[in-house]
Design brief:
- The chain has ten helices and eleven strands.
- The strands form two sheets. Strands 2-1-3-10-4-11 form a six-stranded mixed beta sheet.
Amino acid sequence: MPTFAAKFKLIALDRKIRVGAVSYLNTKPLLYGIKNSPIIREISLVTEYPSRIADMLLTDEIDIGLVPVSIIHNMNEYHFNTRFCIGCDGPVASVCLFSERPLEEVEKVLLDYQSRTSVALVEILFQKHWKINPLFEPAGPDFISRIGGSTAAVVIGDRALDLRSFAAYVYDLGEAWKLMTGLPFVFAAWISNKSLDPGWVERFDRANAFGLQNIQEVIKNEPTHSIDLYSYFTDFLSYELNDEKRKGLNLFLDMLPDKQ
């Protein structure tokens, strides 16, 4: 315990808390609250795509991150913080499988390099829900251009929102999970690699809540998007980490291999 106490003192007193968040549109309400609350003076904030934030938490480059939940299987120590997450209770709109052909004709699935949880989810859905066995291929930055014929792709975030308007077939992974399990899904949560000061966590929680209480202000600061933002933030996304989401999260983690 003395070693842990010394480490905790460093975090709590000697420097700012290092916070990592996803840079996608879906985090904008939470980031608005953080950036417009006093908590911003207590943190060092970095934004990146999900798998990069996950790597930063694993290598202790940040103390807490809004990270893909599948990262838990790679952590020796983890703590959930705040009442909030990036989740859905049905269609999520920004995490989808895109294809030129119907699902049963898909032979290869390209996996978005920016994702961890979503690519794990699609493999579970193919195995347990759709009962199809395509080839899965990790993909690099240019993978969207390779969608065609029997090759489909998992695309997440803002790029997925743009693709929805002209893709031939769109399979929403949040909707598919709900159909399979009857439960909500949690894509990302505020997870730390060490125990953080409860007082700080409470202040950070209030900052997140402030953003969600000011959705219209968030929208005012955003450019035009291919989806109605109010509907996206309130109908497709569900930010409260409630008991039902925890049930969905635990079921998903139980379905994962030991290491992702």
